[in-house]
Amino acid sequence: MSQQQEVRVFAPATVANVACGYDVLGFAIDAPGDEVVVRFSEKPGLRITKVTGDDGRLPLAAEKNTAGVAALDLLKHLGMQDRGIEMEIHKKMPFGSGLGSSAASAVAGVYAVNKLIGEPLTKKQLLPFAMTGEASADGAWHADNVGPCLLGGIVFIRSNQELDIAQLEPPKNLWAAVVHPDIEILTKVAREILPESILLENATQQTGNLGGLICGIIQEDYGMISRSIHDVIAEPRRQKLIPEFYNAKRAAMSAGALGFSISGAGPSVFALCEGEESARKVGAKISEVFDKIQLNNQLYVSPINKHGVHVIEGENK
Ligand code: HSE
């Protein structure tokens, strides 16, 4: 086990649920994402020495910080909680955005520390520790952001309790247009407005669509993917929190999107598209809808990110 003195990592944004897979399906995109830098220090224990890009909102106390909690959980598991480690967190995506911001910090924190100490665990083995970190932020236990952020690709979770997951190879030409309108939605609030029970008819439809989406991904069948991107459970409730949601959906579908829905708990929305050109056109149309009501927004166009969190070089600006 070789040990480096400093490790810098990037953890990407993720689109959770992917319409019909509430809490059980997600994928990563290339950008935006969070960066974490860790280095050994003489002083025992994990200390967060710097956080940027958070407008002063994140605690420096490691046991209260998503990235810190995930890393501490790993160090505790390895009996290394006294190892002196300094951590810097550089937030490069907004909070409450539906882009898996807390998951990215948790994944970056635990992955960076694991690398620094010589990589005793595999990426997949880091999943429960990253989950603990994310759960400390949103109070819920779901791997649909953390899973793809860590592993990349499209991740299906058979059971969040058992952390039984499968990573699917994305179809070659599958692209995403993700638009983040500048409002904040707390995941906790977006979960509270969901129905406690659902109609059998809706459960059947959602199961059919989730199965269809997974078959479409595996068989690279864009028609099947398109017919399957529907959410009859969360979207009807959550769309109320997103201004112009149905206009954005109409704009995306008329511009040729395969499907459109809410990214995670929102307010970001996403469209899956066949090819980059289509994704750029669809993304611009969605963005225009928010522009029309003077709602600032950011557009991210990306293929499905196949690698998840990784080590990077360089300095922070
Ligand atoms: N699956 C989660 C939800 C994602 O929809 O609440 C939140 O990040």
Explain this structure:
This protein is α+β, with helices and mostly antiparallel strands and 317 residues long. The protein starts with 5 loop residues before the first strand and ends in a 6-residue tail after the last strand. Helices cover 34% and strands 25% of the residues. The chain has two domains: 170 residues, 2-Layer Sandwich (Ribosomal Protein S5, domain 2), CATH 3.30.230.10; 130 residues, GHMP kinase, C-terminal domain (Alpha-Beta Plaits, 2-Layer Sandwich). The radius of gyration is 19 Å and the shape is globular. The longest helix has 19 residues. It binds L-homoserine. L-homoserine binds next to helix 5.
Describe the structure concisely.
This protein is of the alpha+beta class.
**Percent of residues in helices:** 25-40%
Radius of gyration: 19 Å
User: Which fold name is given in CATH as the topology of the largest domain?
Assistant: Ribosomal Protein S5, domain 2
The hetero compounds bound to this protein are: L-homoserine
Low-confidence stretches: none
The tally of domains stands at: 2
**Alpha-beta classification:** alpha+beta
Q: What's the overall average pLDDT, rounded?
A: 96
**CATH arch. level architecture of the largest domain:** 2-Layer Sandwich
Count the strands? 11
Strand content: 15-25%
Helical segment count:
10
Order of helices and strands: EEEHEHHHEEEHHHHHEEHEE
Shape: globular
Organism: Persicirhabdus sediminis
Catalytic activity: L-homoserine + ATP = O-phospho-L-homoserine + ADP + H(+)
Family: Belongs to the GHMP kinase family. Homoserine kinase subfamily.
Enzyme class: transferase
